[in-house]
Amino acid sequence: xxxxxxxxxxxxxxxxxxxxxxxxEGPRINEAGTVIAEAVAxxxxxxxxxxxxxxxxxxxxxxxxxxxxxxNFLAVPGTAGVDVMPATLGSAxxxxxxxxxxxxxxSPASAGDVLVIISLSGRNALxxxxxMNARAIGLxxxxxxxxxxxxxxxxxxxxxxxxxxHCDIVLDSKxxxxxxxxxxxxxxxxxxxASTVVTSAIMQAVMAAAAGELVARGVEPPLLxxxxxxxxxxxxxxxMQEYGDxxxxxx
Length: 251
Known about the structure:
By secondary structure, the chain is an alpha/beta fold. It has 8 helices and 7 strands, in the order H-E-H-E-H-H-E-H-E-H-E-E-E-H-H.
């Protein structure tokens, strides 16, 4: 099989997943957008969290052109990227009990705020405890995960539960256990993961739904413009000044 056919197969697989998420998760995506819009309109704050490669879709909605200025990344040191040395440390930290509580206790998140937790498997201690602790202090929790992992794997949290069990809204990315869309004779491991593509699309769809809901409520969405277009910096400066008490990524 030629390389171009494999590339095309990956695009087909990703498009199929996106279409499935659009058709099957649409109502819950709109519900998540409404929850976020309510938080914005009522003066609350927005946070997103993910560890490892699940941090990428979370970072994708923070401080970016066309995005809500109020979305903040809830960082857990050592887990947010592959720049940690060794890279395997991030995976190890996801399994540490108590880390999520310490992070939330030292964060500005409080009752009434919204936290989006992204975890493909939803099985590790960190995302499970993050959701449990967040709800305990009164946050609304939106989980973005692959529900398939709850039946195809075992939880690594002492409770035996998964992220999906501790959320107000669950958005299912439909990613198969193992996160690899392709296989080929002569290659022992499956390859071509699509979770980042699909999960990032889910996040942007939620943000779009939130923007529409805000307009329906008569509230101008606090969106950022590209700094690479004329007037972008001036626009963003005004937005950040108006909402500065709810934007934490610039401090």
